[in-house]
Predict the structure.
Amino acid sequence: QVQLVESGGGLVQPGGSLRLSCAASGFTSDYYAIGWVRQAPGKAREGVSCTSSNDGSTYVADSVKGRFTISRDNAKNTVYLQMDNLKLEDTAVYYCAAAERWTAQAMCIILPSVASWGQGTQVTVSS
C-alpha cells in the first residue's frame, strides 16, 4: 500500500517562497506518477504538478507555471514542490498524490480514484 507523508506548509506573505516535501513508500510498480494536488476552500481539487517515475516527465498547471517547480530525490523516495512568488490565490491544502501505472499528465489532469493521497498540508498566502 502506497503511503505518502507531506510536510512543509505554512503561512507566507505574497511574493514569498515555500518548499513542500512528500516522503513516499510502498510502491509495487516501478512505473507510477507522483505529484501535488491542491484544494482551495469552496473549489475543486486541482492538479498542480506531477512527475513520472520512468522518464521524469512532468506536468505543470498553467496557474503555477514559471513559479512552482517539482523535483525528486530518488535515494530518499521524496518529491518536492518548490513554490516561489506565491500569490494569494495559491492558498489551499496541498496534497501529495500518487498513482501506479499512470503518466504524470494524466494523473494531474484526471485525478483518478485509484490514486493514493497524503494527509495534506496547509499553505496560506496572506499579507
Summary: Residues 104-110 form the longest helix (7 residues). Helices lie at 104-110. The chain has a mean pLDDT of 95.
